[in-house]
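Researcher: Here's the sequence for the chain we discussed earlier.
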Amino acid sequence: MPPASDSDPKPGHLYVVGTPLGNLEDMTFRAVRMLQSVDLIAAEDTRHTGKLLQHFQITTPQISYHEHNRHSRIGDVLHHLQARQHAVALVSDAGMPGISDPGYELIAACVEADIPVVPIPGPTAAITALCVAGLPSDRFVFEGFLPLKGKERTARLEAIAQEDRTILLYEAPHKLLKTLEDLVAALGGDRPVTLGRELTKRFEEFWRGTLGSALEHYQSEAPKGEFTVVVQGATREAPVLSPEAIRAELEQLLRQGMSRADASRQLAKATGQSKKAIYQLSLGIDTDGFPG
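Model: Thanks. This is the structure I predict for it:
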């Protein structure tokens, strides 16, 4: 552990502090120390954060910073920080601030004002659900909450339908059925999905299946708790090319100076067809006069 002088909060710095999604045992030692040591905590809900602070015996004063007062409150927080006399921590109700909450705007304002912003990492619902979803996790995209309605929602769903990375969404229980209905309509009912609810809390649950079966399940069992929805991305089917089309592609690659073996390997990967068969086809191409 670094010496206290190197790790204590510094005046004029904003500390973005991750807090538990639900289970208080997920609070890090560093997060507790930072919240104890800063001069002020900007909290999404001071009553909610107050319970967390009480549990860890933290007496640092709070101010509210949320969706409805963010425009006026940003100036107040910047004033504290620009004076270089106070260190301020930003917390949300759960998880990392700035992810689908107004913390982003305060962080952006600090960056614009050249105020140092320091992350104190903690849990994030999207990554927590992705890690146990059982769906591809090497490439993914976070969509947060979908637009509520209209052309914006339709356009977002159309884009998601073509997305080949795993898709992460947040949804409230009273809107889950509508979102599942729209996802089935846009992506099809066979798309694999994992729904995580009440992550790290007493009634944590993961439901796995397809979008169609998820809709049926939650139509018969009322959704409860906050949901993280993990949807498998679209499968890209390899193009089906005729022997004539493959021969034309081979000839183009060979004219570029590529060897028969390399050209066959590249086309086999692109089309899903047999490398051996493509190589045999390449032997019928006269390469006299080609580069190399």
